[in-house]
Amino acid sequence: AFISYRQVCNSKFAERLYERLELIFLSGKQPLHVFLDRMGLEAGRRFDRDFCTALSHSSVALPLISAQALEKMKGLGQQDEVDYVLLEWILMLALVESGRLARIYPLVLGDGWANDREEATKCEDWFKALSQFVENELPDVVSCKTYNELDDFLVKELKLPKAKRHTVQQVVNTLLRSNGLDCINTRRDNFDVFQSYAESVREVVEGVAASGQSLQQATSGVDVRPSSSRQQPTAAKDFPNLRAWFAQMEVSEYADILIDNGYDSFKVLATLDDKILREVGVKKPGHRAKILLATAGLKT
């Protein structure tokens, strides 16, 4: 699952949701793998390419939508610029259309979840107010710079056609019409609230798996194209040594750490699980998912 949010206003909510989701186990005792940019992006790399890649490898997207998150988009009508939250949301829609993303599950946040609020406030008509904000304040124009940035990724990295153009207002309205979760104002320190949000996400992910994808596809951040169009993990017998296998599976950066910890044969690599990867120091959930996907071919 991929969490998309505006850092300046909703990072606290995103981090608390991430913490709860990291504790979730699905049917079959598999962990729910979650991408949050603060945990998943590497220093010294293009952050825009990396978060786009992470989203394209996910099966469920979780956009956090709030009035504060939308506030910055108001200015796109006067001065166009790349808005990276908008870019993520447009990419979600493009990936759903291409069949690479199974579900968009918006979490619509009340004003009380903003970073600068110490205590949530009561607002009975917050969703109505948010809808009116979208209709009255968001520009009904296309952010060409955002789309140009996205198209560069779609065409060069995913070999997909350019995304269909929609106005800022149309993109947000499309997400708001999706069947998501309303996170109304409540006490910010309520553990049970975040646990219930995490359980709702778990149900969505398991629903995706039940609809025809394998559970590993629904949780590990691999693409959701039909199996005939995906490259399957290559068997160990096709490689002269471990390092050649690591390179082909695109996890060569973890070759040393795994070999040094005793995972120095194909037979032993096949025993890896999420807990072991955490223990040997693979901290980022997306990287653990990538390794587990690669080692799945060794078990057959």
Regions with pLDDT < 50 over 5+ consecutive residues? 213-234
User: What about the largest sheet?
Assistant: 5 strands, parallel
Helix content: 40-55%
Write the H/E string, N to C. EHHHEHHEEHHHEHHHHHHH
C-alpha-based Rg, rounded: 20 Å
Question: What is the straight-line distance between the termini?
Answer: 26 Å
How many extended strands?
5
Give short descriptive properties of this protein.
300 residues, mainly alpha, five-stranded parallel sheet, globular
SSE layout:
Layout: E1 2-4, H1 7-21, H2 37-40, H3 47-56, E2 60-65, H4 67-71, H5 84-98, E3 103-104, E4 107-109, H6 126-137, H7 144-156, H8 168-176, E5 181-183, H9 191-210, H10 215-220, H11 242-248, H12 255-260, H13 266-269, H14 274-280, H15 285-296
Parallel strand pairs: 1-2, 2-3, 2-4, 4-5
Helix pairs in contact: 1-9, 3-5, 5-7, 5-8
How would you characterize the overall build of this protein?
With 300 residues, the chain is mostly helical. The protein is 48% helix and 6% strand. The protein has 15 helices and five strands. Helix 3 (47-56) packs parallel to helix 5. The relative contact order is 0.15. The model is unreliable at 213-234 (pLDDT under 50).
